[in-house]
Specification:
By secondary structure, the protein is α+β, with helices and mostly antiparallel strands. It has 5 helices and 3 strands; from the N terminus they run αβββαααα. Strands 1-2-3 form a 3-stranded antiparallel beta sheet, covered by helices on one side. Helix 3 runs antiparallel to helix 5. The longest helix is centred in the last third of the chain and has 20 residues. It starts with 19 loop residues before the first helix and ends with a helix.
């Protein structure tokens, strides 16, 4: 930002040290502070509770599908843990709302591929939306489980729905 509150046009880092990585970290922190989809709703089609035993992060995710069993009507969640696990659940709730199961499964697979890449795959923004900001977590083995926790809960809940 310049003195007049306008963004600088000095390349990716804005000329003021605000790198793309810092922007991604800010998106993660924003979702952790003000999570989307937070608060378990009724009725629920299926629920999954997942725990990361390494760090104690927890998430309970509920998913409701339509009468055909193919479209996600609603997803809600509650949990506690690090900013990465909480932001991941928030971002997931934005990405999968009102999609067919096949499209949701494609997103789960794309997220898993990104997280298993050790930082070599940036993620497909068309499939993952803002969840691509979590790609950097894939460079840290301890953080992969944190980011994957809500996605594993979704996958489990969908098998139960």
């Amino acid at each position: 930002m310049n003195d007049h509150g306008a963004a600088s046009s000095h390349g990716v880092d804005g000329g003021d040290g605000m790198s793309l990585r810092n922007l991604y970290q800010e998106v993660i922190m924003d979702h952790a502070r003000r999570p989307h989809g937070y608060g378990l709703t009724e009725p629920s089609g299926a629920e999954s509770h997942q725990i990361n035993p390494t760090c104690g992060d927890e998430v309970t995710l509920r998913v409701r599908v339509d009468a055909s069993g193919r479209r996600i009507e609603a997803v809600s969640w509650e949990g506690h843990g690090c900013a990465i696990s909480q932001a991941s659940a928030s971002l997931l709730s934005d990405v999968i709302h009102d999609l067919e199961r096949d499209a949701v499964n494609a997103r789960i697979d794309a997220f898993r591929t990104m997280m298993q890449s050790k930082g070599t795959v940036e993620g497909d923004e068309e499939l993952l939306g803002d969840a691509v900001v979590l790609a950097g977590a894939s460079r840290y083995v301890a953080r992969i489980k944190c980011a994957m926790l809500p996605w594993v809960a979704l996958e489990d809940a969908l098998t139960r729905a």
